[in-house]
Amino acid sequence: MRKTRKENVTRKTRNIIKSERQLLRVTHKLTDIRTNYIQQVTTEIIKREPSFIVMEDLNVSGMMKNKHLARAVQEQKLAEFYRIMSYKCSWHAIKLITADRFYASSKTCSFCGNIKKDLKLSDRTYHCEHCGAVIDRDMNASINLYQYGKSVINH
Ligand SMILES: [Zn+2]
Questions:
Q1: Residue 56's closest CA among 75, 70, 36?
Q2: Rounded distance from Cα 50 to ligand 1 centre (Å)
Q3: 79-101 confidence digits (pLDDT tens)
Q4: What is the whole-number distance in angstroms between the Cα of residue 134 and the centre of ligand 1?
Q5: What digits encode the pLDDT tens for the residues 32-68?
Q6: How far is the CA of 128 from the centre of ligand 1 (A)?
């Protein structure tokens, strides 16, 4: 009886090891896919020959303390994106501007400059209660970052 139980335990452990190896293989594959994706996206951006690129300072080290693995991986990829973008910009002599972490790129209305304090991450469209502007959230943030970059360059 004891032997059988022990055998079962051994067999189960082997299966776990096998599963862990499979999981590791899948994880490596996903990492490769993500890294390739970052390479492709950054190359696409560089190909458009912008005069400057603005990226937000995402306080990656602070976010890395987050206990959720999925988020940590995502943030690690943001850091990777930034690193790759940086060296590609220097290769092509493109100015890379980092927007201050406290710059409210999403909350600021790109039409009138009003700051919407209660903007949630789920709000995909920016509705300005001051000037009535309605604009896609990411487009609004992009315009603000563009303006930010221009003001940095003109100083
Ligand atoms: Zn507005």
A1: 75
A2: 27
A3: 889 999 999 999 999 999 999 88
A4: 8
A5: 888 899 999 999 999 999 999 999 887 654 544 555 6
A6: 5
